[in-house]
Write a structure and sequence with these properties.
Layout (H helix, E strand, L loop, with lengths): L1 H19 L2 E5 L9 H10 L3 E5 L11 E6 L12 H12 L4 E5 L14 H13 L4 E3 L3 E4 L9 E4 L1 E2 L6 H4 L5 E4 L4 E6 L7 E4 L9 E6 L4 E4 L25 H4 L5 H6 L4 E9 L5 E6 L14 E3 L4 E3 L2 H12 L9 H27 L1
Parallel strand pairs: 1-2, 1-3, 3-4, 4-15
Antiparallel strand pairs: 5-10, 6-13, 7-9, 8-12, 10-11, 12-14, 14-15, 16-17
Helix pairs in contact: 2-8
């Protein structure tokens, strides 16, 4: 009898464990490519997650009991806009709390991707980020990096990794990640951190509350706009005096960068996260300049075949770290609204004191 009961328990335990596995939904319903899906599925399954591929539309039914939602670069295989009902479903799911949302952008350069659509991909991503109240945006721009290791400047191997303790769990064992056909990310924060007026901020030099950069490009990087509708939010784009796009790799043409190119080169944030997001302050948001899946050269790529040698990448490790981090629910110790109201309450007495001393000095 006991043997039969034991066998019964062994028989039902795997299926029970499978039902309890955290669900990770990957969007394929807006023309995302299929490259890298098998690798992504393998990472999820090996780490105890249940992958769900959304192929029709994003709605309440498909998002039921989903812990993590990943929305990669859209419009690669077909153009299918995000409907208002889909956006509403995403917001309602997000507002339940204890979720992680990963949204990726793309460059505005129309020469990449299956449909050669760039600017629309950026609008698509920011529409979602705005709807959930994220403090991060992808910029309407294109990113290139001059390197002797890569075959084209759109192949940006980002190698500046944030070592800070706040994101150590996300960046551990990460050294180089490919951001192909990428844009950059910036912050979107209240002025002075508490005023009810928002502005875009460069995350390279400024901070937004609960927002942390993960990866920067490294030196010799340039951003430019390839679409006339593109106006970067927090960065000044490079504009060639000759009216050319900076798409010829220095290592290919054999020439040194022109002086005005050297002056335009910088280091940019290509991936950032936000903690304590959403109305319950227990959600997480991940934003990357290019997609973790979908293209031939997605973030998940483990090896880059360079001109001189193959380069080992940390894309799979990064994605694993992000998923494991996103599965943990963390809540802010104090509501940001509390601090905002506190700081706003200080403004009137400060003004009174300033006016008092101003009048006193006139006497």
């Amino acid at each position: 009898m006991f043997v039969l009961i034991g066998l019964f328990i062994l028989t039902i335990t795997p299926s029970y464990a499978e039902k309890q596995a955290p669900k990770v939904a990957i969007d394929l319903s807006h023309g995302q490519g299929k490259k890298g899906l098998e690798e992504l599925k393998k990472i999820l399954v090996e780490n105890g997650f249940e992958p769900i591929f959304i192929t029709q539309k994003i709605d309440k039914t498909v998002l039921k009991n989903v812990k993590i939602l990943i929305i990669g670069e859209p419009f690669y295989e077909e153009y299918k806009e995000l409907g208002d009902d889909e956006l509403k479903a995403i917001v309602e799911w997000f507002n339940e709390g204890g979720k992680m949302l990963w949204v990726s952008g793309a460059c505005d350069y129309n020469g990449t991707g299956g449909l050669k659509i760039g600017y629309e991909k950026i609008e698509f991503a920011n529409k979602i980020l705005s709807a959930v109240g994220a403090k991060i945006r992808v910029e309407p721009a294109s990113l290139v990096k001059y390197s002797k290791e890569t075959s084209e400047v759109l192949d940006v191997i980002a190698d500046q990794i944030n070592p800070d303790k706040e994101v150590k769990e996300l960046t551990v064992n990460v050294s180089k990640v490919l951001f192909y056909g990428s844009t950059i990310v910036c912050g979107y924060e209240r002025m002075f951190g508490f005023l009810p007026v928002y502005s875009y901020i460069p995350l390279e030099i400024e901070k937004a509350q609960n927002v942390f950069w993960l990866i920067k490009t490294g030196p010799h990087s340039i951003i430019f706009t390839a679409d006339e509708r593109s106006i970067p939010y927090a960065h000044e784009p490079y504009k060639c005096p000759l009216g050319e796009l900076p798409l010829t790799a220095v290592c290919v043409c054999g020439k040194e960068p022109w002086k005005f190119e050297e002056e335009a080169m910088g280091i940019y944030v290509v991936m950032a996260v936000e903690k304590y997001a959403g109305p319950k302050q227990n959600n997480k948001i991940v934003v990357s300049g290019s997609s973790p899946y979908g293209e031939e050269k997605s973030l998940i790529l483990p090896v880059y075949h360079g001109i001189l040698k193959n380069i080992t990448l940390s894309g799979p490790i990064l994605i694993k770290n992000v998923i494991l981090w996103g599965a943990k629910t963390e809540k802010a110790s104090q509501s940001p609204i509390f601090y905002s109201m506190y700081l706003l309450a200080l403004i009137p007495p400060i003004i009174v004191v300033l006016v008092y001393f101003k009048l006193k000095t006139r006497k």
